[in-house]
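Standup notes
- HV: blocked on the assembly model, inputs below
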Amino acid sequence: MTRWRLTVEFDGGPFSGWQRQDGAPSIQQSIEEAIEKMTGEQVRLHCAGRTDAGVHGLAMTAHVDIAKPLDAHRLREGVNALLRPDPIAVLSASEVDDEFHARFSCTGRRYLYRILNRRAPPTLLRGQVWHIGQDLDVEAMAEAAKHLEGNHDFTTFRSVQCQSDSPVKTLDSLTVERVGEEVHFHVAARSFLHHQVRSMVGTLSLVGRGQWNPADVKDALEARDRQQLGLNAPPDGLYFVKALYPED
Amino acid sequence: MTRWRLTVEFDGGPFSGWQRQDGAPSIQQSIEEAIEKMTGEQVRLHCAGRTDAGVHGLAMTAHVDIAKPLDAHRLREGVNALLRPDPIAVLSASEVDDEFHARFSCTGRRYLYRILNRRAPPTLLRGQVWHIGQDLDVEAMAEAAKHLEGNHDFTTFRSVQCQSDSPVKTLDSLTVERVGEEVHFHVAARSFLHHQVRSMVGTLSLVGRGQWNPADVKDALEARDRQQLGLNAPPDGLYFVKALYPED
């Protein structure tokens, strides 16, 4: 039995999310079925961070155990061929030792959130950005974001379906920058609560629109109350960028 | 009657091209119908360069004459609302004088061609790049591209359906650069023959793969024979970037 580490890119648009679900297409199911077709084995894929419906992946890390002897090149090429026409691609495959676990070995996760900030709606970027026509105040959003960095009880920014044991997390960094017609949020932490990134970005967007002051974000955080959430941003603009491991 | 200049962005994927055709969706028809719904007038849209099926536009210039008094903001917003769900957006609208003609006043056209050059197929960029898995030699392609710059008879790189009076054109510049996982071709000329950019990029890709030498491109050009064409690149990677006008 060999443990394989996979790096996966996907367009989350057509999927109900990463995790396998009855009667709904998922990234996990598509990849597992491609590997099963290739190997004749029933396999189980584990990932660094399960994504919601519509959320994209630039370099999601996953692992899977396969008994059949394979080389990395053949595994990657074979799975990619079998994944067609799903918009999922294995960027790389490598053998890892049995200690490696895509979820439990992961020591850091990076997300990107993209807002298309212009009057005209997206065309080529449809489904890949959140469109906000009103000009956003990036400096105010950056100031507000500072209140969210650090170790906090993020109950306000947590989905009611969140299964995490504790609402206390350490947000390593949350930076905001204008990139051409877009506004990008770069988010880094060891781990996140369910909907945390989208809840933070949605709330910061109210600051960008001038409806909230930066201090209102601090108040909402300290309230530890989901009712104080400003807004949950749509999944379209969210990208799982990468997972960090001690061995990298 | 007011002449309006429009800057238009579009995802060419779902369309049979810019130009109106019976029984096939076109960008021209979608925009004309949106303006007709808004104004109650029959209008005719002219553009800087008609694009083929699957070719994209980042900032296509077009013009249209409208009798109904409108302001630029209302025209742009109204047309964009009526264009839904087509992936077409009016980025800007401005009044111009009657001398302005999107096609005949245009003194320069810029195209971009994007190749995704990595083993794994595209996911988020599907339909928006040409995927080539084999590692391309960018230096060799750049050297070959130099043979195409300048004033030449481009018969070799011209579609049999081309309606241009003459195959002689001046290619102002054709540069090639690696941008992350992509290879970009930046192409500039006053005007182009039908399929010229795709024919040049397709042929240069053979140099990038090592199947042709840079000098073979010179020979193909000098042959003035469509049969000597290396390859016509697919439309997916082609973008009309912008049109230049003396008044800008």
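- HV (later): unblocked. The interface with chain B takes residues 9-11, 56, 76-77, 80, 84, 87-91, 118-124, 126, 128 of chain A (CB under 8 Å). The longest strand of chain A covers residues 168-179.
- Next: hand off to the docking folks.
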